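Memo to structure team: turn this sequence into structure tokens by end of day. - J.P.
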Amino acid sequence: MKNNSLIVSFLAIILFSSCKEKIDLNLNNQEFSRLVVEGTITNEDIYQTIMITKTSDYSKSQPPVIVHNAIVSVSDGQNSWSFSESASGIYQSQTPFQGMVGMTYNLSIQYDNESYTAVATMNPALIIDTLYAATSAYGDSLYEIYSNIYESEMPMQYYLLKTIVNGVINDSLKNWNYFSDELINGAYLPDLLLTFVKAKEGDTIQIKSFSINKEHYDYIINASQSLYEPIPFLGSNPANIKGNISNGAMGFFQASAVSVNSCVIQ
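Reply from structure team:
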């Protein structure tokens, strides 16, 4: 247990050190019309989702502009899936499909006489073997969530963890956990502290792991850093954080293998 805590401490140091790069903000009006794309293809057999908005004028405190009538598709070199707008700015695949580890996915967006593309390859999942909770000494109704984890032997892997309480995911950047396998490559990690969560007895806690690539990992770190800048990244306040969408667009397109496990607070 002490060794695992040490590993987590080293990971925290690495993450903190990675967040020191200055992020320059560009507030001229042309920047506020940039397309913003966020989407993930997973290995779940579901309707895959891409969200598309446009940045708005920070000085006017306006929310992001919803993008309607975009032409969106994803292909893997053999198959192609068309996406249609299922809600405001939310584009879903017209049929469910399941991504595969090792496959590369190509995103294509046509909007307002402009073309936008992105490429993502799906890496192996982080296997969450078991999950359990323990009362934390750091606050009332606060629990520490532990797991036994099998990490892929493939080097240079990166992971994003999201917490779900009673079926509700708190999908906020501030609540994400993310790390690399630089110090734990190919290891089995018993009793590893993953996160803290506010809960009560009887609540069901799920941890959902997403494999991500180095580019997405750096993107998340820079976005997290910008939350503590005078003008944060999310919402209507744009920052020059490099994603992987072409043609000057913002945001990120990712392919992720998903692993999930759950426990009940006792």
